[in-house]
Amino acid sequence: MGIYEKGFERPSPIQEESIPIALTGSDILARAKNGTGKTAAFCIPALEKIDQSKNAIQEILFVQVGRSGRFGHLGLAINLITYENRFNLYRIEQELGAEIKPIPPQIDRDIY
């Protein structure tokens, strides 16, 4: 089932600006109000990049209630991870050969 069958008619401003960039593999840091389509803005490109002929993990999305950031050319989305969770993230990196990036230092952590 495609996105139009689920009620999508046209992209929201955050989707219109971020999806083409995400599809190129570039890192994105975006902020928009609740209900503006941020989740679809990072899920749609992640789903588009999946090669169904490969039997391997290709995209990982971590979700936790709270403010969020999206980083990484592999399609990793990380929402505020607590200090206690750091060992779980390290294990995921080791087992999957993925890199989990922290919020870049030039980003104001009070905003994100």
From TrEMBL:
Gene Ontology MF: a single term: helicase activity
Top-rank lineage group of the source organism: Eukaryota
Residues spanning the signal sequence: none
Pfam families: DEAD
DEAD/DEAH-box helicase domain span: 12-60
Keywords: ATP-binding, Helicase, Hydrolase, Nucleotide-binding
Record-linked Gene3D superfamilies: P-loop containing nucleotide triphosphate hydrolases
Coiled coil: none
Record's protein name: DEAD/DEAH-box helicase domain-containing protein
